[in-house]
Amino acid sequence: MNHPLIVALDFSNKNEVFQFIDQFQDERLFVKVGMELFYQEGPQIIQEIKDKEHQIFLDLKLHDIPNTVYSAMKGLAKLGCDLVNVHAAGGKDMMMAALEGLEAGTKAGEVRPSCIAVTQLTSTSEQQMRSEQLIEATLQESVLHYSLIAQEAGIDGVVCSSHEVKILHHHLGKEFLTVTPGIRLNSDLVQDQKRVATPDEAREAGVSAIVVGRGITKAEDPYASYQAYKQAWEGVRI
Ligand SMILES: O=c1ccn([C@@H]2O[C@H](COP(=O)(O)O)[C@@H](O)[C@H]2O)c(=O)[nH]1
């Protein structure tokens, strides 16, 4: 994964999606299709975006018993996305089943999508995690624990915040993917996110890919905002 800036297409219908995408005639985007769009438009939206030669992260965060996740992933693999995900809280057996489903559903001669696991949502604070999930650890420890079991299951990386990336690299190596939402420019509103970082901070932490939604899609000039995020994200990478 070559350090993409992934744009979250949190729209409720395909007209809004293509109105947005059509502003980027000269760019091959890496976009994220999440629950809002997928549940409204169904699986065919994936092919329509692929026809325009954009890469796709299908962010459905699967979390169920292993057998159900196996079958769901087998079906999703047929859509030909680049990246899919599960919740690490579903457990090691569930994550292994997700990978088996992806392998089973990937067409012969094609590469299976990468699969990452959500650790703690970027909208979760440590205080919330402790009081609502009854986890008696720091947030970093919880993210590290979920990442360790994800790696043991054979998962390719995790969704976390930029704040946890250095410790993950230390324990899991730099090849393990870190995909971080909760990205904001200093001028942006934080909204419902709790663990946020700027694109520069994410780059300095060594993040593999950043995810940006409203900062681009709801901007007055989405194209200009995309370029501003991209410039800050690309910076000087060492
Ligand atoms: O921990 C997570 C996991 C997924 N997301 C998703 O990323 C985008 C972020 O959108 P913004 O508008 O930039 O806040 C959104 O689609 C979430 O579903 C996340 O934010 N945190």
UniProtKB/TrEMBL annotation:
BP-aspect Gene Ontology terms: 'de novo' pyrimidine nucleobase biosynthetic process; 'de novo' UMP biosynthetic process
Gene giving rise to this polypeptide: pyrF
Entry's EC annotation: 4.1.1.23
Annotated SMART domains: OMPdecase
Catalysis performed (reactions): orotidine 5'-phosphate + H(+) = UMP + CO2
NCBIfam families cross-referenced by the UniProt entry: PRK00230.1 (NF001273), pyrF (TIGR01740)
Pathway, per record: Pyrimidine metabolism; UMP biosynthesis via de novo pathway; UMP from orotate: step 2/2
Orotidine 5'-phosphate decarboxylase domain segment(s): 4-229
Residues making up the signal peptide according to the UniProt record: none
Subunit structure comment from the entry: Homodimer.
Family: Belongs to the OMP decarboxylase family. Type 1 subfamily.
Residues at the catalytic site: 59, 61, 64
Assigned keywords, A-Z: Decarboxylase, Lyase, Pyrimidine biosynthesis
PROSITE patterns: OMPDECASE
GO cellular component assignments: cytosol
GO molecular function, one term: orotidine-5'-phosphate decarboxylase activity
Protein name: Orotidine 5'-phosphate decarboxylase
Entry-linked InterPro entries: Aldolase_TIM, OMPdecase, OMPdecase_AS, OMPdecase_bac, OMPdeCOase_dom, RibuloseP-bd_barrel
HAMAP family named among the record's database cross-references: OMPdecase_type1_B
Domain of life (superkingdom): Bacteria
Amino acids binding substrate: 10, 32, 59-68, 122, 184, 193, 213-214
Function comment: Catalyzes the decarboxylation of orotidine 5'-monophosphate (OMP) to uridine 5'-monophosphate (UMP).
